[in-house]
Prior knowledge:
166 residues; 4 helices; 30% helix; globular
Amino acid sequence: MTIVRPASAADAHALVELAESVGREDGRWILGTGPWRSVADERRYLRTIDRHPDAAVYVAEDGSRIVGRLSLARDPHPASRHVADLGLMVAESHRRQGVGTMLLEQAVSWAGEARVRKLELHVFPWNEPALALYESFGFEREGYRKRHYERGDELVDAVLMAYFVG
């Protein structure tokens, strides 16, 4: 059974493994083409987030295995503090099993508690499974960001999507 819970510094190794595994997939993920942060850097990041009221990291755990990650961060600009950016990744072995939806539900719950009214994310235009997940959840396509991310030597586009909370 998969559960969603707040991430802790003890999850750093498993989260780095998840990010590196997802990042090795064939270009569907908005991760850099280089390595993810080190386990020590991930541990520091998680400890910092744990003390920060405007950000959170959650994990989806199946038994003792972390199979998903949700990262949230409020926009720091005073005029857009009602907006938070989110990042989501799910292990290939656990896709299309409701894990992504569980993590998105957690994002909405966090947003309600944090008084965030809008969640935003980016997705590659060719990542049709992710687009389908987000749209089925209620995210809307808000824009198209041309040459927004570096993937090796290439600049690639991203779809900006948003979900309005409440």
